[in-house]
Amino acid sequence: MAYFLPDENDKVVVYQVIQFSPADPWRVVLDGELLGSFDKFEGQWRQLSGEDFSNQLFLGIVNFVDTQNFNDLPAALMARWNKQIQEVVSRSDQEYLIVCKAGIGFNSFEGIFSRFVSGLLKDEWLVSFRVFNHDFSQDFTLLAKPLVLEKNIVGWD
Question: Considering only CA atoms, which of 69, 31, 60, 62 is closest in space to residue 48?
Answer without folding.
Answer: 62
